[in-house]
Amino acid sequence: MSQNRFVRGGLKTAAVLGVAALAGVVGFGTAHAQKTVKVGISLPLTGADAEDAVHIRNGATMAFDEVNAAGGAGGYKIEYWVLDSGTASAGQYDPAQAATNAKKFVGDSAVVGAIGPVMSGEGKAMTPILSEANLATITPSSTNPDITDPKFAGQFKPKGKAIYFRTVTTDAFQGPNMANWMHDKLKIKTVFVLDDSGAYGVGIADSFQKQAEKIGIKILGRDQLNPKEADYTTVLTKIKALKPEALYYGGVGQAGVKLAKQAYDVIPGMIKAGGDGMQGTSILKGVGFPAIEGWYCTNASPHVTEDPGTADWVKRYKAKFAGAVYDDYTITSYDAALAMADAIKRVAATGATPNRDNVRDALQQTKLKTLQGEVSFDANGDILQKVVSVYQYHENKAKPADDMDAQVPYIGVAPEVPQT
Amino acid sequence: MSTSPLEQARGFLPIFWERVRSEQWRRGVSLVLIVLACAFPLLDSNEGDLDAAANATAFATLALGLNIVVGFAGLLDLGYAAFFAIGAYTYGVFSSYQVQPEWSGFWEPFQWLGFVARAHSEGVPVDHVHFQVSFWLMLPVSALVAAFFGVVFGAPTLRLKGDYLAIVTLGFGEIVPIVARNTPYLTNGAQGLNGALPPNLLGYSFGVQSLPFYYLGVALVVFLIFVSSRLKESRIGRAWLAIREDEIAAEAMGVNRTKLKLLAFAVGAGFAGMTGTFYVAKLQTATPEMFTFPVSVMLLVMIVLGGMGSVAGVVIGALLLQLLQSWFLQDLTQWVHALGRFTGIGLLEEIDLVQSIELIFGIILVLMMLYRRQGLIPERMAVTALTHAQQTAVPSRGGLKGELKPLHGKVVDPKVPLLEIRGLAKAFGGIQAVKSLDLRVMPGSIVAIIGPNGSGKTTFFNLVTGLTLPDAGSVTLSGESIRGLGPHLIVEKGIARTFQNLRLFPNMTLMENLLVGTHTRTSTGAVGAVLRLPSVRQEEAAARERALEVLSIFGNRLMPRREHLARTLSYANRRRLEIARAIITEPVLLLLDEPTAGMNPTETLELSDQIRGLRDRGVTILLIEHKLNVVNEIAEKVIVLDHGEKIAEGSPAEVHRNEEVLRAYLGRTATAAVRAAAAS
Amino acid sequence: MEFLDVLLQQIINGVSLGAMYALLALGFTMVYGIIELINFAHFNVFMVGSFVALWVFEAMGFSGQSQVLYGLPLIGVLLVGLVVVMLATGFLGAAIERVALRPLRGFPGTAPMITTIGVSYILFNIILLTMGASTLNYANPMPNIRWEIGDATLRLREVLLWVVSFALMLGLHYFVRYTKMGKAMQATAQDQEAARMMGVDVDRVVITAFFLGSALAGAAGMIFGLYYNYTSFIIGYTAGLRAFTAAVLGGIGNIPGAMLGGILIGLIESLGGQYLEVRWTDVIIFSILVLVLVFRPAGLFGRMAPSKS
């Protein structure tokens, strides 16, 4: 009896393996005749950050597809390899999974560069591995300054060369510049600061708070929201009692949407601001007017979506990803991919075969005009341009409800912190 | 026919050979697996695959640790990831760029020892301390720190039953990541620890290469499998299993519940602490999200899938699920996408199986609990059935023959009452179960306690053995007060008991049931169990000898079945095992609660003989009985209880004639009738 | 705001928080009282209920904050939603009991509880995979009336919440105390064997208890969505742990106790957040859970039935 079971089990396994082999052969049937290089893309496509990750993936893959359609980068077809860095048990990005992805990229000698990660927590796990292999990555959205800070060079780039390039400005600027805006433009003297306990939120709230204190804004209090909780009336009541002129929220939409809705109920008159976590169609949809009316938000890149060049891009984007939403990170991701392709092209132009070392070096020398303006990197890998744009939510009944440019108009550049 | 039961026992060598063979088989398979594990990187040198494999070893060690708490000791811990976090952050504090206090003279001796370095940064006026304690030193240190917290978190749960214990551990499991998030000075909170140092072996730094971590991980797994197995097959492991099966009976057999539960928590936490250090040294960062409830649940799924309590099983469960997540599902998803493109089915092209891993976890939990609770690899392998000859053998009576050593070595003064009870009382709510009882049992006697149902007999036993605390009165054993002592201490003092409703350990073998009884007379601790020094081996062998001797008291009824699970025994055999387990604790006083219940007259007579034999070997017997013929046969003194008080005391004959007794049993009218009949 | 105004406002906040937790705890504590099973799935049935209500409202034509109703149409819409949700989640709960829990009934140890963890995961992930991780906006057909008491504000929706949870609590309490099925439930809670011997169909009692408890969870889900104007896959998680603590604090198995426990937890959350920091709320509440379970497992108001030995 048990023997029969074994035989049957063995046959089943063989059958599955056989079909798998067949599919594998079919899958690999598409042979590459052209010269190709591989670029790894590691994004948290599982969990809480999945939506943003999809936008970023769209931006990068669109750029690569366009480059390939135009004949490739210096004649090389770019094959992109997308890996998920989110796991279900973490419910979001998982640094261990990101590290594994980095190792996979490093282990495949055809990979000459990477795009990503999305979150700084992943970046911390990936950079030592990438540095070891001298494999450069460009992140469109990781804003924690530590990773490119020379103070921490020993752990984030032990080999010495910059491999973590960004097409987005770090929190070292986004938070403080907003503090400057509040002080200079809005003449605010007292603020209450909240964060959402996440890596990004805590970072940007901290940098905001430090700068605010430096320029003379009084911080009446600092507390933390639990994004999984539903009810923030307790902390909002507390804030109401303290009567600050403004509320600054560092964090993303999971807590931000609820905060905005409930803040409209409890502290409708107060000035409220957030970072780029509070900018996006998910916020617009999730909160809606009138609750979101008047909220300020910032973005660590210049405002380009209304530039004429971008309109064409928007059309192409909407055609390629039927009806999909885009945001500023889609653009920084697109630009990052363009920079990568450009680096490969420049290497090919010298006649050398693109590999990690020469692609990294080429990236360091990037001077490329992209949707967000000119992209070039400093010695640490940070983008040279440090513009922080400020926006404010203002209902525009004449335009469609999900038109970001109409409903969240651009109102200016946040004053920079003077460099010492 | 004339062979002694002991010789018959030694004749049953086939069972022993089977054990040896399976032992060898186990060793052979383990060796092959270790060789394969070491050779794996040669077959697949892809960094990504090695990395995933190294991560998988970490989860295997975590599963092993959880197995000790849940599988061995039966304590459902839903917050196990907390210990993982503690191990990780302990290493993070002592070996990373995270904590950087200002330099002062205080740190110089540590610098000399190599634990810290003086760090100078550009533009920063004061030098800082950079912690760099060696990874190899931190491995055991983190284990100890985590073990300490294991005791701290385990202590509140000691008196809680299964569900509540799980919830309390869940609570601690939630608290630890929140504290980690809210103490950024130590942990850098949500932003992630900065730069934990990789291990350094004789000048060679592991850096970010997967290969050395993989081998280190394999070594850790092998080491912890070794420790787990050694613990399981030892006095400590048996005590844990006994607690898992029946806490109260375990304590009544001499197991110190408190100590052993805390030990289980400590050892389990220690495994997790070590793994935390390994994991963080490899990842070089840590975020609080890595240690939340879903991680604890994932570990639970691993051991449920693999087989709770089975060392090999949980390792396999862990590897399966971890590799499922990192390898198979990603590849399977690619394959399904290809299939989708091939067949043109849109859904297949879009689906991402990796995201549904938690759904798969939930399904696994439910299906395993419903259909295969023992897991893929059950804790117990099937035992060979008895041969036809054994099954149909004529039961031999056994009994104590000359070779059996006296049951206890204690010298008992025959003139001092062995057990003296004065004024013992206990009330449960409004019911006075025992009212001011006075009692005396002389050494070497057999005393029977009889009385109608509800007269307080079993409560009396519970009071004497410490299962219940008396409200008033004194209980002394050979003049020494034993009132208020916990059950395991009572056993140590020399009082053993059986239970009216039988409290065997159903999923342990007869042998193991008996060996639990030797717990108070042996002393191997956890460390000894792992090291298995000659003294430990001797103790174990002596205990087994003793068990065989005790088994032989019951002839061939229990002996051939000694490797069978207790729950497979017939009712009468279970009663015998219960008694055997009490006997093996080497008591001076044996309390038997209705030992012959459910036995037919022949078996009853056999047991009466055995009881008398025990008395002849120096054990004083106090028994509760309903069968008056047994009482008449063997009891020298009879005490009658009714409604919690003693209403008569004397020889069996005296008691039979006693008015009060008759009235208690038969009622007033019937008593009158009996008296009338006797008079006429 | 003056100290007293702040205090009053936080008390109002706390009672509202508490009423929500109590609502969620009712069904959970009732089921525990009867079969002494910690049903982890309860809190994700709650979450499913809020999605079902969302779909029902969308089917009836409500989405977003567009329409405000008064009077009869409002009550009509809410009633329809309530009935549909309660039936749907009630059947879901009964199905869970029948398929996953009945085969394990009477098994010692924690096997049944582990199974409920598995079911909870399944529900959670099905919603996550099908509906995504984003928060979904809820219809809000209720008017936005509020009253001012000094500097403190009391909103209509808060009063409604208190009234509804109290009413449901009373209803459940009377059902268990005075109806035939309720008495059968009490009997089963005290001693399953004896109840069976007295002619009580224990299987029916248990499945009814699950049906009722899950229906209440679904109702709580709908009320949650209407109150906070959103739902998402994660709402069962935090609310669940707080409601659980409320049930334990009040005495698990005790229905009025769950109400009081809920209000206490709500007040601790709001007053703790005000006078300490919101970031420590979870730690405080979990510590309370641990302390109660260790030192006073019967909770503040004792249990409905004695515990297993």
Can you walk through the features of this model?
The complex is a heterotrimer of chains A (420), B (680) and C (309). Chain A is 45% helix and 17% strand. Chain A is α/β, with parallel strands linked by helices. In chain A, the strands form four sheets. A seven-stranded mixed sheet of chain A has the order 9-8-10-11-12-15-16, with helices on both faces. In chain A, helix 7 links the parallel strand 8 and strand 9. The longest helix of chain A has 27 residues. Chain A starts with a helix and ends in a 7-residue tail after the last strand. Chain B has 680 residues and is α/β, with parallel strands linked by helices. Chain B contains 28 helices and 14 strands. In chain B, the strands form four sheets. In chain B, strands 10-11-12-7-13-14 form a six-stranded mixed sheet, with helices on both faces. A four-stranded antiparallel sheet of chain B has the order 6-5-8-9, covered by helices on one side. The longest helix of chain B has 33 residues. By secondary structure, chain C is mostly helical. In chain C, helix 1 runs parallel beside helix 5 and helix 3 packs across helix 8. At the A-B interface, helix 1, helix 3, helix 4, helix 5 and helix 7 of A face helix 3, helix 12, helix 13, helix 14 and helix 16 of B.
Overall pLDDT confidence of chain A: 84
Major sheet summary line of chain B? 6 strands, mixed
How is the largest sheet of chain B built, in terms of strand order?
Answer: 10-11-12-7-13-14
Ends apart, CA distance between termini of chain B:
53 Å
Please tell me the total number of domains of chain A: 2
Low-confidence stretches of chain A: 18-32
Specify the structural class of chain B: alpha/beta
* Number of separate domains of chain B: 3
User: What is the overall shape of chain A?
Assistant: globular
| Widest beta sheet: strand line-up of chain A | 9-8-10-11-12-15-16
CATH class of the largest domain in chain B: Alpha Beta
Q: If you consult CATH, what is the topology of the largest domain in chain B?
A: Rossmann fold
CATH C-level class of the largest domain in chain A is Alpha Beta
Q: Which residue ranges of chain B are poorly predicted, with pLDDT under 50 across at least 5 consecutive positions?
A: 400-404
Question: What class would the helix/strand composition of chain A place it in?
Answer: alpha/beta
Number of helices of chain B: 28
CATH fold-level topology of the largest domain in chain A? Rossmann fold
